[in-house]
Design brief:
Blueprint: H1 6-16, H2 20-32, H3 36-59, H4 72-82, H5 89-106, H6 122-134, H7 138-158, H8 163-166, H9 168-186, H10 191-203, H11 221-240, H12 249-262, H13 279-291
Helix pairs in contact: 2-3, 2-7, 3-5, 3-7, 4-5, 5-6, 5-11, 6-7, 6-9, 6-11, 7-9, 9-10, 9-11, 10-11, 10-12
């Protein structure tokens, strides 16, 4: 890759008149040795999987193997049908979509990790609801995924995207930043505005711990995906309005590394602290172990994630 930081990515895009998505597609093809068409086709397949996960989460039974979660996305949709959502229908639909995908993950369905399974609902939640709202075709959203990929590449190579390494700020936070920056480009914003959106998003998730109850990617992971989609939309709107991340986004990413490195082990995906160790969290964990901990879709003990 010709870039490692958002500053370098913005400079390249401005020099060559390209978006984050166009730059990432070309760089990925050059690095992999595969054609641009092949790389694009693979990403297009991923987007179809995302859309199917949204559909499934909104229409099918998503009760998890543990029985702890399921159908919350459908509850939100039902609420919207009979009530005026405080955050508005647009944000509420993105939230429902994000919950849907995260619940599909918890119920052992097929999702795309963006950047992880624990944060898999945020980008689909934002993309699918925005596609419906603005009438965008799939091709536009596929390029949006390349844009999100460029942002994720920078974060992963300078900080964390794993809850076990850096807490939930690294999973949900990174996904919010990826969704926000790509949303700016989808709405016609500049590369500089997209970079600002990343910084605005990440600043407001710094320090978020990873504390999965029972070690499962369910509580509080699923609802954090829902909130994350709304936060991503807000960060994109701020950036498009001209709000800047006064602390440069690359420096915010470095702070995420610093904070995650200082975070105690109990708050990094171990289920030894935070919500997992509340009286209710402990009771849930005891109940799960008494009846036998549910297996993951791969037949392994489920790896906790934020």
């Amino acid at each position: 890759m010709r870039f490692r930081t958002l500053k370098q990515l913005v400079a390249l895009c401005e020099q060559e008149g390209k978006s984050f998505g166009q730059m990432m597609l070309e760089e990925q093809a050059a690095e992999s040795g595969r054609s641009v068409e092949t790389e694009y086709a693979k990403m297009a397949e991923y987007y179809q999987i995302m859309k199917e996960a949204v559909r499934k989460g909104l229409t099918e039974d998503t009760t998890s193997r543990s029985g702890l979660t399921g159908r919350d996305a459908q509850r939100v949709v039902q609420y919207m049908e009979t009530n005026e959502a405080a955050v508005g229908d647009i944000a509420c639909e993105a939230m429902a979509n994000a919950l849907a995908v995260s619940e599909v993950n918890a119920s052992m369905g097929r999702i795309i990790a963006t950047p992880t399974a624990g944060s898999c609902g945020i980008i689909p939640g934002v993309f699918v609801s925005s596609q419906k709202r603005f009438g965008w075709d799939d091709d536009k959203l596929v390029m949006g995924l390349f844009s999100a990929g460029a942002i994720g590449y920078v974060i992963a190579n300078n900080s964390f995207v794993s809850g076990a390494e850096g807490g939930c700020q690294a999973e949900v936070g990174s996904a919010i930043g990826m969704a926000a920056g790509s949303m700016v480009e989808l709405r016609g914003g500049t590369p500089a505005q997209a970079a600002h959106a990343v910084g605005l998003a990440l600043k407001n998730t710094l320090g978020l711990i990873c504390d999965p109850v029972g070690g499962l990617v369910e509580i509080p992971c699923i609802v954090r995906n829902g909130f994350g989609a709304v936060n991503a939309l807000a960060a994109a709107d701020m950036a498009l309005a001209g709000v800047r991340s006064v602390i440069p986004s690359d420096e915010v990413i470095q702070v995420m590394l610093e904070v995650g490195s200082a975070m105690p082990e109990s708050h990094r995906e171990t289920a030894k602290g935070g919500l997992a160790q509340t009286p209710t969290g402990k009771a849930i964990m005891d109940q799960l172990y008494r009846k036998g901990k549910p297996k993951s879709s791969a037949g392994q003990e489920p790896t906790p994630s934020s």
